Amino acid sequence: MRVLLASTSPARLALLRQAGIEPLTSSPLVDEDAVAAAAEQERGSALAPDEVVLLLARAKAADVAGRVATEDPTFDGLVVGGDSMFALGGQVYGKPYTAEEATRRWFEMRGATGVLHSGHSVIRVRPGADPVEATAVAEAAVTFAADITDEEIAAYVASEEPLHVAGAFTVDSLGGPFITRVDGDPSTVVGMSLSTLRRLTSELGVRWTDLW
Description:
A hairpin with a 2-residue loop joins strand 3 (about 75-90) and strand 4 (about 90-95). The chain has seven helices and seven strands. By secondary structure, it is an alpha/beta fold. The protein is globular and about 55 Å long. Strands 1, 2, 3, 4, 5, 6 and 7 form a seven-stranded mixed sheet that branches.
């Protein structure tokens, strides 16, 4: 049983490897901003964070599943897509990209608690059969230390780690020591909830241990 991760995120890849899975990887050809904007225009209102992450996770998985079915008709396995967003104080944050924005966010996060929303889409792909999808959203509350100094924030931002991750922080790398509590599946904060993925694979008739 093969697993194809619809992402080139090093954190998601490492997470699956730590769980005993060695996936193939493929970068989804999805314009995330355009997909979200189109959905909001169709509805006529903004999407909630859990709706956005699920929408994008499904779009990524569908794109990769469609391409692998065409490019490799013998593919028999699971395509896994995910997306994450961090909400704090009524604001929703994706990746900050710039040092200035990452610094601003860390000043807001210091001593506060926010929620990491993680969308999951798992698609069962096999020759001669229609693809079948299972989806879910996982959430984890993250509390940041109140005594983080301005100097620590500057040093962390200078490492460039927070610039390209949802919410401008990690829990499994340099950002971990600045987090005092995680309520929920900790792997959700890394990029995907392993317990959620296990449940979705089960819904598709696949035993998690068969993926090892």
